[in-house]
């Protein structure tokens, strides 16, 4: 049904030449759907533009290629193709209904029923469609949940979660980024009952949702609710509740939730972090928990991660020595100017003692601010 003549605010993402060319190629048999419509109505920036259509993928492909557009079969088994229209990408999916679900994935059949497709989506605010004239179609009551923004499952929360347990994480993540009122009581009850179902999901999917949740502007309330429902225990049993959740990105919030000395390598193995993520967190942990007499060694090893580690140190009730923040902000990487060959040329013998002596010189150089030149260090060896 049309939503009481509700029209999308004017915006290039749906009124621009690329969108108009795409809809023209499909003869108007497609509607914008999901996040683009939601964010457009909320006045937020629209980054990804998805469309739904009653046309089968082969027909979508035929029409778009006939119009000269590149088509990529990005999810053809589930009815999805990606169109590249004059440099802009659009994801187009044939209307679907679920045939069966197992808590991780669904077997789908194609449909021509817009309402049926809307009912298989997760939240009411994600089940909205809009046509090429900007007219909004609401089969789930999503427009009523936009102001204040409520994150409410379509139909019974238990049913939607059992279809895909990742929706548990998505519920909390969406509330952290969009929710402006109390959290939905029915969803919280379902989350508490079904939290163990998260164990059947891949670590990569769970971590992706948790990372995005931690990046929300103010996730404290949501994390508390995750703890109360048992969801946080399922995904991050190591978590402690800090005196204050610090400002910062996902990495600062995550480390602040973990106990000092937490085995980050073991946690990385479980959550499938990337090497870059693990390296960042190790550097932050050392900056947050070690007590070196100066920050230069940390800065040389971990760079900008040290500043984030300082934020965690402060959140845990610690302090940062005078001037460390300024040093870290203005830091430029510096290489240690000596090598073992320099010591050997001055009479040192190769072996373990050489390595220990070189390390001691490097530590003294760091303690002095990493400013001594090679000539100055060599003069000190005489």
Automatic annotation (TrEMBL):
Cofactor (UniProt): Mg(2+)
Record's keyword terms, sorted: Magnesium, Metal-binding, Nucleotide-binding, Nucleotidyltransferase, RNA-binding, Transferase, tRNA processing
Domain named Poly A polymerase head: residues: 30-152
Domain of life: Bacteria
tRNA nucleotidyltransferase/poly(A) polymerase RNA and SrmB- binding domain boundaries: 185-239
Matches recorded under PANTHER family: CCA TRNA NUCLEOTIDYLTRANSFERASE 1, MITOCHONDRIAL
Family: Belongs to the tRNA nucleotidyltransferase/poly(A) polymerase family.
Protein's name according to its UniProt entry: CCA tRNA nucleotidyltransferase
